[in-house]
Design a protein that fits this description.
Blueprint: E1 2-6, H1 13-21, E2 25-27, H2 32-36, H3 39-44, E3 56-59, E4 79-87, E5 108-114, E6 122-127, E7 133-135, E8 143-146, E9 154-158, E10 164-172
Antiparallel strand pairs: 1-8, 2-3, 3-4, 4-10, 5-8, 5-10, 6-7, 6-9
């Protein structure tokens, strides 16, 4: 993960308040066929992960009541998508790769941004380009990270006392 900078000023507190008090899609349960068709499911291989469990809560443009007009980084010449995730205490995601973007695109960039400061028990673990496994800690609300490789394995969990809120973004062209 490459640190880009801090964009706390870009985050709207009403988004954080809304996600703190409400739930979006219960993932993977409410995303059905989209999960089955994704590389998340494929990357689980012979895993014993129970995909009927709720591993996180998500919002994307179709179920988020606010407009997200732009992303914090320059998106000139890029198409993009975004989604927010909430991991309630005890929730975690399987070790996975994100779903592939449409094959017509030649270039992809992925970003991750916490919407709150790091707390003990909030985990983000990823496989670096040299295949070492790293844990990202001590981040601040609004810190923007770019995945060094857009196809890395990663996982996240909230094993602390409070929910964990993040923004995930994919740019492609």
């Amino acid at each position: 993960m490459k640190y880009i900078g801090n964009y706390e000023h870009w985050i709207k507190q009403e988004w954080v308040d809304y996600m703190s008090e409400n739930d979006g899609f219960l993932y993977p349960k409410e995303l059905g066929e989209r999960v089955k068709e994704s590389s998340i499911q494929a990357s689980l291989g012979d895993s014993e992960w129970d995909m009927s469990c709720i591993c996180c809560v998500s919002w994307e443009p179709s179920n988020f009541p606010f407009t997200v007009d732009s992303l914090p980084m320059d998106t000139t010449g890029w198409d993009y998508e975004w989604w927010f995730l909430k991991l309630k205490p005890g929730m975690g995601q399987p070790w996975h790769r994100d779903y592939p973007v449409n094959e017509k695109y030649k270039e992809t960039k992925r970003y991750w941004m916490p919407l709150q400061d790091y707390e003990g028990g909030h985990l983000f673990i990823y496989e670096d380009v040299d295949n070492t496994v790293k844990v990202l800690t001590d981040y601040k609300k609004g810190d923007l990270y770019e995945y060094i490789d857009d196809d890395i394995f990663h996982t996240a969990a909230s094993l602390g006392k409070r929910k964990r809120l993040t923004l995930n973004m994919t740019l492609y062209r």
